[in-house]
Amino acid sequence: MNKKKSTSQLTLFIFLSLSLTSSFSSSQTPRKPPPLPILPLPSSPQLQWQLGHMAMFLHFGPNTFTDSEWGTGHVDPSVFNPAKLNAAQWVRVAKDSGFSRVILTAKHHDGFCLWPTEYTNYSVSSSPWRSGRGDVVGELAAAARDAGIGLGLYLSPWDRHEPCYGKTLEYNEFYMGQMTELLTRYGEIKEVWLDGAKGEGEKDMEYFFDSWFSLIHQHQPGAVIFSDAGPDTRWVGDEAGVAGSTCWSLFNRSDAKIGDTDYQYSSGGDPFGHDWVPPECDVSIRPGWFWHSLEVPKSARTLLDLYYKSIGRNCLLLLNVPPNSSGLISAEDIQVLQEFNDLRKSIFSYNLAKTALINASSTRGGSNHSWFTPGNVVQEGIDSYWAPEGNQSKWVLSLNLKKLVSFNVLQVQEPIQMGQRVIEFHLEVLNEEGKLNKVVNGTTIGYQRLLQFPTVKSQYLRFVIDKSRADPLISYLGLYIDRYSILSNLSRTTSHASRNGSQILHYHIESNHSQIAAI
């Protein structure tokens, strides 16, 4: 590259950077308060839930021993006898693999209870396991507490064993009695999981959901409640672990009904929603939800792809890992989880933008205001963030990586405690001719957005927010290299190809900026 060309490139980037930088600040200026949050906002339990990233579902019960998915409710309790059951192993596998909580099917559709309930004999008390004195929920609660991870419970509304099912008042009383046992015997419960699943031709049944929700929040005020319609977290609308490419935590609960899901609405949320109900992506590591001896787990790379399409789209990933008939998580599942964990660490352990020089189109309170400086976007966590001045016509972060860097993953986070704001954004890099090329664009961000694109190599880039519900706030921006996903092996892609809900806009760029001086 000749000297004249290098100088013109440098001049262009200096001009771009200086034109975007706030021109006035004073250390004597009174501190600028944070901008107003934009409604709706998450509750404290919802924030803690979102910060957990991943939860492990544990489907376990008589189905584990009968090679079934939906039990009939008439299987003899004697089939339940997991001779080597070790809840501490379940919890250890979850924690070692990066999961923040475990959720157990305390009662599935067959009505069999994994704790010694006083409302039915169809439980562990009637099984040979632990001579009828066992308590799976109790053992898991103790193990989770000792390991410092959260506990969640699933109590199926549909009960194929209970005789009063179908009698509205009697069954709701029965269900709330069982729920009260679970909420008052086992310490802190982080999540209560409900759904509207019911087979065709089954008895009609009206569930008193509002009463259930009130009971749960009364006994466990720190728990989030999952269902098709919230109130705290919602089903994403499929059991494939994939969220919509546009995914709002905003939602109208009045437009959703438990057991009658509008899949498109659940997947994408509602930019005009009045309620904060973030989505949860549930998927099983195996083809079935319960353990079956002839099934094998998904590969670690498949789980990585699901990670991008769930956590990378503003969701929590709920991965089902069913214990086997011995009462242990199978060795092959553990191996895949370890490989999955290793892949994530390899990709995301270091932010390639960590030491970048960062300028902003404007900064709230002035360019040197420490609360809202653009440098906050490479500090982990959502408590600090970049905020622009109000009433701006453009919102841009310009990064100088100080050297040529190859990357193919963009991570962006919003401080969701201030509301979800960004509607559209894109990423540009400076090419070898001194021109800015769009690499990828996306829509919503929320707690976290991960976008993949063919590998680019550059020193200078711009993150541009094109549309927002209010002044945008960015808490984190990361660049990474993923050498494992299929897309990372592509050298270029056709214009406007789609990947992970983004649009990949230009050919792969291998820029030679070695003669461009650092700014």
From TrEMBL:
<dbReference type="InterPro" id="IPR057739">
    <property type="entry name" value="Glyco_hydro_29_N"/>
</dbReference>
<dbReference type="GO" id="GO:0006004">
    <property type="term" value="P:fucose metabolic process"/>
</dbReference>
<comment type="similarity">
    <text>Belongs to the glycosyl hydrolase 29 family.</text>
</comment>
<dbReference type="GO" id="GO:0048046">
    <property type="term" value="C:apoplast"/>
</dbReference>
<keyword id="KW-0326">Glycosidase</keyword>
<dbReference type="GO" id="GO:0004560">
    <property type="term" value="F:alpha-L-fucosidase activity"/>
</dbReference>
<keyword id="KW-0378">Hydrolase</keyword>
<dbReference type="Pfam" id="PF01120">
    <property type="entry name" value="Alpha_L_fucos"/>
</dbReference>
<feature type="signal peptide">
    <location>
        <begin position="1"/>
        <end position="27"/>
    </location>
</feature>
<dbReference type="GO" id="GO:0005764">
    <property type="term" value="C:lysosome"/>
</dbReference>
<keyword id="KW-0964">Secreted</keyword>
<protein>
    <recommendedName>
        <fullName>alpha-L-fucosidase</fullName>
        <ecNumber>3.2.1.51</ecNumber>
    </recommendedName>
</protein>
<feature type="domain" description="Glycoside hydrolase family 29 N-terminal">
    <location>
        <begin position="78"/>
        <end position="340"/>
    </location>
</feature>
<dbReference type="InterPro" id="IPR000933">
    <property type="entry name" value="Glyco_hydro_29"/>
</dbReference>
<keyword id="KW-0732">Signal</keyword>
<dbReference type="InterPro" id="IPR017853">
    <property type="entry name" value="GH"/>
</dbReference>
<dbReference type="InterPro" id="IPR008979">
    <property type="entry name" value="Galactose-bd-like_sf"/>
</dbReference>
<keyword id="KW-0325">Glycoprotein</keyword>
<dbReference type="GO" id="GO:0016139">
    <property type="term" value="P:glycoside catabolic process"/>
</dbReference>
<keyword id="KW-0052">Apoplast</keyword>
